[in-house]
Automatic annotation (TrEMBL):
Similarity remark: Belongs to the FAD-binding monooxygenase family.
SUPFAM superfamilies: FAD/NAD(P)-binding domain
Lineage of origin: Bacteria, Bacillati, Actinomycetota, Actinomycetes, Mycobacteriales
Pfam (any one): NAD_binding_8
Classification via InterPro entries: FAD-binding_MO, FAD/NAD-bd_sf, Flavin_mOase-like
The protein's required cofactors: FAD
GO MF term set: flavin adenine dinucleotide binding; N,N-dimethylaniline monooxygenase activity; NADP binding
Organism: Mycolicibacterium sphagni
The protein, known as: FAD-containing monooxygenase EthA
Amino acid sequence: MTVNSLSQARPTQPLRGHVDVLIVGAGISGLGLGHYLVTQQPGKTFAIADSRDAIGGTWDLFRYPGIRSDSDLHTFGYEFKPWTSDNAIADAHEILDYLHEVIDEDDLARRIYLRHKVVRADFDSDAARWTVTLERDGEQSEVTCDWLFGATGYYDYAGGHRPQFEGEEDFEGLIVHPQSWPEDLDYAGKKVVVIGSGATAVTLIPAMAGDVEHITMLQRSPSYVMPQPRKDPIANSLRKVLPAKAAYAATRRFNIGKGRFIYNLCQRNPKLARRIIHAINVKALPEGYDVDTHFKPTYNPWDQRLCAVPDADLFRSIARGKASVVTDRIARFTKSGILLESGATLEADIIVTATGLKLLPFGGIQVAVDGEVKDVHQSLVYKSFMLSDIPNLAFAFGYTNSSWTLKVGLVCEHLCRLMGYMDRHGYSTVVPVVDNPMIEKRPMLDFSAGYIQRSVDLFPQQGTSGPWTVEMDYWSDHSRLRKGAVDDPALRFGTTVAAPAVSASGATTA
């Protein structure tokens, strides 16, 4: 399915009436649940609402040069749909093509409502139903649903994290944030400075290096950067001798294990992991390069996410002399660039502030139960997909130390099983309840990255035991979500006879 055919197939009228499930977000998580509902709960009516005018979430929002996955698509792709491209590290347009194929294969287009921003959701316990307020083209309307599913990701689509620098008003060039990349930005032959050392920076540098006069990555402190083959030789070899599904399943399982092995090595033997990464960096960079200054972080590997560079493209740009890395602090912007605390200056025509994301839980939706607005930070996460004291609400939040989508599939599958269980027993509501008021709490996002720590108090919390932990291990979740029972002592099921529902046109047929 193409963008044009999607536009032709989507409903033309605003979403109104009632659906069994309202999915908020038409990115990789929301479309994933759409597939599982079609295949595992074919009797359920559902709609997918997204505030933007295109599907794809992250992969449509970001338009900066080189935008790509930082996980292999054999684990970042859906379990149910083989990734068949030769590229394991995929560009955004390849991922969008893949998502459009899912929409076409599962007939999801007629259920997708773009430019429908969800602003509020209020659960009525007597009716066992959510009333959801949508905003479209400046006008508000309401839709009701039995289940609300948050597939909103975890960052603020309105804008990224953008610290203010002294002297910005003096700079005569252009300042750009990657989340708001101008489509007509001409950087050919220009001097460019990219502020930052994370995944966005290491993507931008090699993508722009061939066209600019010179590009500099200015970092306050280094991150771990690891080369990774863009093409997976094992996957591509298996596809030549096995059916696509079998080759994909084998590659996926192998890559899950490989990723877990690397993560555990970094956590359990960080000194050895440091030495290995350092040796790889030394080999990839020019002889005599100051690796210790520019690529030797103070923290241990996987205390923050590793930055993957496909086919060592960042290192190759440095070796060719088109890119450089400067590790220093900014004193101020000047008329022609940046003055550093060391006294050195960097000339620039364009400064790119790859300074991170702003996080936003559940897309900023105001959630209320029986008129009481809920502070989600006070809730504990149940099995990584529901919140204590909030009925019939589920969400997808992927791994921070592995491919996001690995968890999404398990969550969607478990939710469909839970819906089936409730239907068989005549239940209309379910709510997780914390029985132990003295349970120890810790952040849901237990990760030291700066963009996480800036917003950790906005997100729910997790406990330290039982179903209240947020697992960051695929096989632990596999046991809990795929193999484990959906009934649980922490869940309270209820039965309410709901009022007759008016179906939402264009969204509900199975």
